[in-house]
Write a structure and sequence with these properties.
Layout: E1 2-6, E2 10-20, E3 25-33, E4 36-40, H1 64-67, E5 80-88, E6 91-99
Antiparallel strand pairs: 1-4, 2-3, 2-5, 5-6
Length: 110
């Protein structure tokens, strides 16, 4: 979970960029810039494959929220350290986040 505080709301969304430690872009996200504390849960996935965008407009009668599930997910990020850059209102902040292996799941590292 990524947490930040904004003193005031903005029409321009907050931009979150997540990169691997070698600088490869993992995920770019846009989140509404609301005043106060915001907590955002990254799903631990890379950006979806190029050319697989969800339809610009959901089919008649379908909510935009449900339509967002039409876009295939990207692959899951491997355990490790990732760089996070948050940009809002002309200001940037950087940090790191770590994905840890689930000790309850046996998986191959190949």
């Amino acid at each position: 979970v990524i947490t930040w505080y904004l003193g005031q709301a903005s029409e321009t969304p907050v931009s979150l960029t997540i990169q691997s430690v070698d600088g490869k872009l993992t995920r770019t996200l846009s989140v509404p810039a609301r005043a106060g504390i915001t907590r955002f849960a990254w799903d631990g996935r890379f950006d979806p494959p190029a050319g697989s965008a969800a339809p610009a407009r959901p089919p008649a009668g379908e909510s935009p929220f449900l339509a967002s599930f039409r876009q295939p997910p990207g692959t899951a990020a491997r355990p490790g350290v990732y760089r996070l850059t948050l940009a809002a209102g002309g200001t940037q902040a950087a940090g790191v986040l770590q994905i840890r292996e689930d000790p309850l799941v046996a998986a191959s590292s190949r």
